[in-house]
Specification:
heterodimer, A: about 90 residues, Non-ribosomal Peptide Synthetase Peptidyl Carrier Protein, Chain A, B: Rossmann fold, 3 domains, 5-stranded parallel sheet, 25 helices, 18 strands
């Protein structure tokens, strides 16, 4: 849950969304601000925050909160190796 | 990080905190938050406007907010314009925007090997070595063409050309270094060309991305986003990259400091001369004396590039003299200091006295001292003085000298290299000034002045003087090169520079006068009138004024207008126009207006000899 929150918080801040936005509502289709420029910035943001690198295949599937969470989980890094998680 | 802290030291704490968080995290939401908070500040808190045009062979759009934040830290209000991607020549072939949009601007061209010379990444697919070498030649020609276009259409706007960084992603790295048509040498040839073009001066500067990338390491790059959007930088890389650009542009808007006032014990050498004796001091080729030796080398270099050194030491003068005379490894000599204060007074009092002797403002000074107490006292009593170091560790002191941008400049002019001698002689002149008859004294200086029109040969010096002269400066207008060019280009303007020689040597250009036609062409308005502080009290202003009056076309100009705009520092010239015989017509808090009508030429000062004019 905490991990979700962290990603959720990042996306809310990144796209300047209302703080009570639900994770399921964060999709590329529903957010006009999520254009190709934002996509590039979002990827560097995710890479810097979670210390991961995305493959080309993965990038094409980063179109919503849930897809990003899945991609991060598959890397295993988020679950097992998140030294910067808030206590 | 230390540099940014210095840059933003005058911002309120909220903004400071937000900026530091943004820079540390390299996170875009934090960067946007810092930018929003900066927008809350008053314009004067945010610094001068800085127009920057970016032309690039890769996509800079995603990093614009980061760049805007970096430039805001200078501080400045950055106006960024992004040129069309990969279309440099077509863009700069158009005339640059005129008037206000040209102010305080810079144009930056950023290119990289992947776009401009992709063949070098695949040499054997592209006719290595001959054909590849000729491709490099073609690119060198392209660089010259680009500079030519810029000068034709945007002369006066500083042009920053990036060097080419070594690529991060390529194969056959071992071979790349083995042949002069290989990748590394090809990059080196390009960069060599760019350095050469900057050496010619003329408003072309280097944005050395090659050295930046080398310092930053591979982590600055992100191949994924490069493929995705032709934006090659990682989040951290973006922050480093934009701060590097900001530092490169900073001298355009922030004048460098002119004087370093420094302590001796535990700075120039290890130990305290009054306690340890000369033989107990640490200075030499072994640790830790080698650190102090290196500090001295840095200081000597500063003095040779135009930063005056002032000695502030709490000691007995005899001890200090003995150290300078008998320590075998001393790099700095007694004479390398423009002013020496060795006594038991407070250092801030001595610094103030040194400022007075040199005729320089306190905001020209930087202070270096290992003692926390001395730095703190200086900070409290003279907040205008910048403190160079933060702690007493000699290696830290050395690092602060390596890393500071406080003395940064694009060029080191002959005037800079001569500055120490000029100021040292100033002391000699002051001594001679005891003569009763001032005019006889001035005659004894054997002054000879030459009046030059402002033009390409002296423009750099004139712009520098406009930017730096604080005391004898009637209007303190800090014109850019482009603004001076506009004055030169305007019909009927008069722009003169005065060069002085005296028995002590060539003093270079030490006075400037700029005048433009008013709204009514029959009026000539004095825009700027200034004299370098090292030539004060010698009547050169009378000489320049007389020379200007002789050049006024009295057929078409009936009236001359001038103003005195007081600042914290130019009280010395408050009565100048009264003395020169102008009529005071209007006076308010911000300025005093004068007229001269009719315009009558005046005599040159009798003690100054006139040489040839151009």
């Amino acid at each position: 849950m905490r991990i979700d929150d962290r990603l959720l918080r990042l996306l809310i801040e990144f796209f300047d969304l209302p703080p009570d936005t639900r994770s399921g509502d964060i999709t590329q289709q529903s957010l006009a601000a999520w254009d190709s420029l934002a996509m590039v910035q979002l990827i560097t943001e995710l890479e810097a925050t979670f210390a991961v690198e995305f493959g080309i295949e993965e990038i094409q599937r980063l179109r919503s909160y849930h897809e990003i969470r899945d991609a991060l989980c598959k890397k295993g890094i988020l679950l097992e190796n998140s030294p910067t998680l808030p206590a | 990080m230390n540099l940014i802290r210095q840059w933003i030291r005058r911002f309120p704490d909220v903004q400071k905190g937000a900026i530091l968080q943004a820079v540390e995290s390299a996170s875009l939401p934090k960067i946007r938050r810092a930018l929003r908070l900066l927008d809350d500040l008053e314009p004067e808190q945010r610094g001068p406007i800085l127009d920057v045009e970016l032309l690039s062979t890769y996509n800079l759009e995603p990093i614009l907010p980061v760049l805007r934040l970096a430039l805001s830290c200078l501080p400045s209000r950055a106006h960024l314009r992004l040129g069309p991607l990969d279309d440099i020549e077509a863009h700069i072939a158009q005339p640059a925007p005129v008037s206000s949009q040209r102010l305080s601007g810079a144009r930056i061209i950023i290119w990289r090997i992947e776009e401009v010379l992709p063949e070098a990444l695949y040499p054997f697919s592209h006719g290595f070595p001959e054909r590849l070498a000729s491709r490099v030649d073609q690119f060198l020609e392209r660089i010259e063409r680009v500079i030519g276009l810029h000068k034709r259409n945007a002369d006066g706007i500083p042009l920053f050309l990036s060097t080419i960084a070594l690529p991060v992603n390529f194969s056959n790295a071992l071979f790349a270094a083995q042949h002069c048509a290989g990748l590394f040498c090809s990059v080196a040839r390009v960069n060599q060309k760019i350095y050469e073009l900057a050496t010619q001066g003329d408003g072309v500067h280097v944005l050395d991305l090659a050295s930046w990338a080398a310092f930053e390491g591979r982590a600055h790059a992100d191949a994924t986003v490069d493929f995705l959007a032709r934006q090659p930088l990682s989040a951290k890389g973006q922050v480093g990259f934009t701060l590097f650009i900001a530092r490169a542009l900073r001298p355009l808007i922030v004048p460098r400091r002119k004087v370093l006032a420094l302590d001796l014990d535990n700075t120039l050498w290890g130990g305290v001369v009054g306690e340890d004796g000369v033989n107990g001091l640490k200075l030499g080729h072994d640790f830790p004396g080698n650190v102090h030796l290196r500090i001295q080398r840095e200081l000597l270099e500063l003095r040779h590039r135009g930063v005056l050194l002032v000695m502030l030491s709490k000691n007995n003068e005899a001890d200090v003299r003995q150290a300078f005379e008998s320590l075998p490894d001393m790099i700095l000599k007694w004479e390398d200091f423009a002013v020496r204060k060795i006594d038991w007074n407070h250092k801030h009092e001595n610094l103030r006295a040194a400022a007075h002797e040199l005729g320089l403002g306190l905001d020209s000074f930087v202070f270096l001292d290992d003692a926390d107490y001395e730095r703190e006292q200086m900070r409290q009593f003279l907040p205008e003085v910048r403190i160079l170091n933060e702690n007493p560790d000699p290696l830290h002191i050395l690092r602060s000298l390596w890393e500071t941008d406080i003395f940064d400049s694009f060029t080191v002019t002959n005037e800079d290299r001569q500055r120490h001698e000029d100021y040292a002689m100033r002391g000699a002149r002051n001594v001679e000034a005891h003569q009763d008859d001032l005019e006889a004294f001035l005659k004894s200086l054997e002054m000879e002045v030459t009046i030059e029109h402002v033009g390409p040969s002296n423009l750099e010096r004139v712009v520098t003087m406009l930017g730096k002269t604080n005391q004898f400066n009637m209007t303190s207008r800090r014109h850019t090169r482009a603004q001076v060019q506009t004055i030169l280009d305007s019909p009927g303007s008069i722009a003169l520079a005065l060069r002085l020689r005296d028995k002590f040597g060539d003093q270079g250009i030490i006075a400037v006068l700029l005048a433009v036609r008013g709204g009514d062409a029959a009026i000539l308005v004095i825009d700027s009138f200034l004299v370098s502080c090292r030539a004060l009290g010698r009547g050169v202003e009378d000489a320049l004024w007389a020379a200007m009056l002789r050049r006024v076309d009295r057929q078409s100009v009936r009236r001359l207008e001038a103003e005195y705009i007081p600042t914290a520092k130019n009280g010395i010239v408050a009565g100048l126009y009264d003395r020169l015989g102008l009529q005071r017509v209007e006076h308010d808090n911000s300025s005093t207006h004068y007229v001269l009508e009719p315009i009558v030429p005046v005599e040159f000062p009798s003690w100054i000899h006139f040489g040839q004019s151009n």
